[in-house]
Amino acid sequence: SEMLQNMCIRNLVRKYCQGVPAERKVQLEQKVVTSAVFRGKKEGYQQSINQPFMDTRLKESDLNPRVLQLFQGEKIKYVTPVIKYDRNGFKARERLLVLTQASACVVEMAKIKQKIDYSTLKGISTSNLSDGIVVIHVPEDNKQKGDAILHCEHIFETVTKLCMLANKQNLVKVVQGSLRFRVGSGKEGTMVFTVGQEPQVFKAKNGQLTVV
After folding, report:
1. What is the CA radius of gyration of the chain?
2. What pLDDT, on a 0 to 100 scale, did the predictor assign at position 56?
3. How far, in Å, are 39, 119, 132, 192 from residue 43 at the CA level?
4. Contact 102, 118 (CB under 8 A)
5. Residues 42-100: pLDDT tens digits?
6. Which domains does the chain have, with CATH numbers?
7. What distance in Å separates the CA atoms of residue 140 and residue 181, rounded to the nearest whole number?
């Protein structure tokens, strides 16, 4: 009886797995990664569970033709609007985050402002609060001016796509209180996370980037 029961359960599971559509399978795989990275660590995770991830937030047809020309030979996998914060004055600028099969690119109009090859990616940081800030850490070399500081509306989706494409799930860190980021030329900056009545991002008097 126990053997038949186990065989029956295995058969039901097998039928279910074989009947899962390809799109549903992709969703489940992504959600498993999201759970491993954020479950019990970042506010808003529970509310994100039942929200399906989009394949991309902007289709190729929505992009400037000159942007598409920049990625000839690279397949675009995901595009989403972001706010990029300058590393020095922390001025907010509207940008696009374009994820290809091999790299993450911060794009302004029809110009690539920063290209980060997945093979050189050092880490991905976000806070444990409900903000949408993500910092993409890059190596210290002449090709990179410093880490990319971005605000993403769909933080769980974006970080999941990024770490899966880069195959660096283990490099995602959910920090509490503050984090350090590289400005360039060996310099570092500090970002502080706090709780307030209204969400905001600003440069404090002490020069730190404060995220409320």
Report:
1. 20
2. 95
3. 9, 30, 10, 16
4. yes
5. 999 999 999 999 999 998 888 888 888 888 878 999 999 999 998 778 999 999 999 99
6. 2-176 (2.30.29.30)
7. 11
Decide: helix, strand or coil at residue 206: coil
Q: Report whether pLDDT(142) > 70.
A: no
For residue 184, the model assigns a pLDDT of 74
Alpha helices in the chain (DSSP H): 2-19, 22-38, 45-48, 65-70, 155-166
Check: CB of residue 121 under 8 Å from CB of residue 114: no
Which of the pair, 38 or 63, is modelled with greater confidence? 38
Taking residue 173's Cβ as centre, other Cβ atoms within 10 Å add up to: 15
Tokens 């794009």 correspond to: 107
CA 51, CA 67: separation in Å to the nearest integer?
29
**Mutual orientation of helices 22-38 and 155-166 as an angle, nearest 10°?**
100
Backbone angles phi, psi at 201, to 5 degrees: -135, 125
Supply 61's token pair: 């047809």
Q: Give residue 59's identity as a one-letter amino acid code.
A: K
As a whole number of angstroms, the distance between CA 135 and CA 139 comes to: 13
Select the more confidently predicted residue: 70 or 161.
161
